[in-house]
Amino acid sequence: MSEYAEKIRGIAKKLLDDGTVDMVIGFRKGTMPLINEPCFVKDAAKVDALVWDSSCGVNLANYLPKRKEKIGVVAKGCDSRNIVTHIVENQITREQLYIIGVPCTGMVDRRKIRLAVGKEILSVSEADGKITVTGDGYEEVLDKQEMLQDNCAICIHRNPVISDEVIADPVEEQTDVDRYADVKAVEAMDPEARWNHFEQLLDGCIRCYACRNACPLCYCPTCFVDESQPQWVGKSVDKTDTRTFHFLRAYHCAGRCTDCGACERACPVGIPVRQFTKKLEKDCKELFDWEAGMSLDVRPPLDTYRPEDPDEFIK
Amino acid sequence: MRVIKIDKKDWESGVEKLSGDYSLYGPVKQGAFHNFAPLEKGQMPDLDYVNTRLSPKSVVYPQCETMFEYTLDENQPDHHVNKEIPKDYSPRAILGIRPCDVKAIDLVNINFDNPQYQDPWWVQRRAALTTVALACNNPCSTCFCTTAGTGPFDDSSADVLLADMGDYYLAKVMTEKGEALVGKAGFDQDGSAEAGAIDDAAKAAEAKITSKIETGKLGDKVTTELYDADFWEDIAFACINCGTCTYLCPTCWCFDIQDEVQGSDGCRMRNWDTCMSALFTLHGTGHNPRPNKTARVRQRFMHKLKYYVDKYENGIACVGCGRCVQQCPVNIDIRRVCDLMNRFEPGKECA
Description:
Chain A has helices at residues 2-17, 77-88, 110-117, 150-153, 181-187, 191-202, 210-214, 239-252, 262-266, 274-288, and strands at residues 23-32, 35-41, 71-75, 97-101, 123-127, 130-135, 138-143, 165-166. Chain A is of the alpha/beta class. In chain A, the strands form two sheets. In chain A, strands 2-1-3-4-8 form a five-stranded mixed beta sheet. A three-stranded antiparallel beta sheet of chain A has the order 5-6-7, with no helix packed on it. Chain B is α+β, with helices and mostly antiparallel strands. The relative contact order of chain B is 0.16. Chain B is globular. In chain B, strands 3-2-6-7-8-9-1-10 form an eight-stranded mixed beta sheet. In chain B, strands 5-4-12-11 form a four-stranded antiparallel beta sheet, with no helix packed on it. Chain A: Keywords: Iron, Iron-sulfur, Metal-binding. Chain A: InterPro entries: 4Fe4S_Fe-S-bd (IPR017896), 4Fe4S_Fe_S_CS (IPR017900), Helical_ferredxn (IPR009051). Chain A: One of its GO terms (molecular function) is metal ion binding.
């Protein structure tokens, strides 16, 4: 992983030195184990702040909309797909970006690791697919694959789909994963069980909007829940209002969500927010053979009409 | 203050005796983490925890509460009149609250109960509250309470402070409310002979706190210079302006007032608000004096570490619980920001 960081620093330095970009967006080392902080570097002398490891989960595409600068941006597979979506949705131009592609073997879930270890973690290192965590008087070695974020465990686009330079050879894509096992389980429920399932998932939501704000898709100048004239949604933790927020937000992401996991990673109370978006992702795949953010040249299914679009669901 | 000893085998029966006189709250495991919740009859607080995900401030200051109800039906004689709704002010006790979180309730009190304003609901709920704090023998690496005006054995705010000594607790009974509670629980074994053990445990716990902040120079900074410091853009860059830090914080006290109407029935509620949201300062004209995230991030830290310091001259508006540090989705760390603010010299780069 340190070779990755070296590569990123080298490219960042070159881009800043020769004026290709005004800033490079990447990660700096976190103040705690298992999380790094998104940052920008404008000064070529400071590129050594940039790091890379399996705790760079935050989706950096979230930091691009409406920026005016020329930007070098470090991008994993999912980040790159959200960058494509931003370009297609006119949030930034391709010409403004120098995309530093990072083939990714998945990002770890800090909460999963803390739960597995059950003790306070003071430092973390990784090598050869193993995560070594140490704390007060102990050391434990974990299998990285088992500690991945849920979305990373079923990711089939680990390599950047768009880039100006890639820092390493492509990684092998996962092929033997069932992306929708959880959705199928919900589809199989009767309506009452399904209702209860979603009620339980939302239990504990504090309406902090971390899921929305971490999501690269949620760049609306005024979100519908923040609209006050008229006010569509109440602001308390009333169940109906909380449901309305989550479900409407999910529908706003239909055909756009790349399953990057930003929402779940951000949630401070552990709501599996992807459960609201994945059914829509599955429908888009099955109905329109669509995966979001894979190409700059194809319009998304929800803003195009084709005579042959399936319509069996309209009764 | 006196010290009593509570054998752990007597703890549960004592707690059960309390449930007739108090609504009890305590740490409860909810999925992967602990939160404070009302304890059902016979339910024990789970004291095997380090810190709760959400702070216990909601026991005295709920995230959402209805203040008034009214009718818009003009056939009713009292239409358009806000009527205060009755609330429960019966005695309540939080068992196992951490010393930093009790300190935070005192800190928030400055906002809700002062010579200028007395918030009736806060004042009455706080008056009804007895706190039984549990000292921290094993603080975690993100705890910086000892440099934030409190500490793992701070007894200055709690009614009772429990120190876990293995097979038993030593309890410092600090107030009359505390005396009343231990009396009702039937805890009366003299522990004064072992009082020194609490001090030893406190020293040991304080020594385990590795995370420290420097705040000594904050008061002397020129507010406008700090406001214009060069580091805010760098600090704020990663921020996504969610409300995680403010909602988890035990000392964030800001609220929003909302009217909700269904048909002709309306209510006026108070909800926690967050200075991270653009709506927090959006004017009716559409103008927003804090128009971007850098301004909002700066406000949060300036409020906690500068405006409060200057206004009240009793330290910072933070008790060092570390919740915002642990749960910020993008790792914005108040300890780092405090360090930058405290070291700040105009004209010198310190980012």
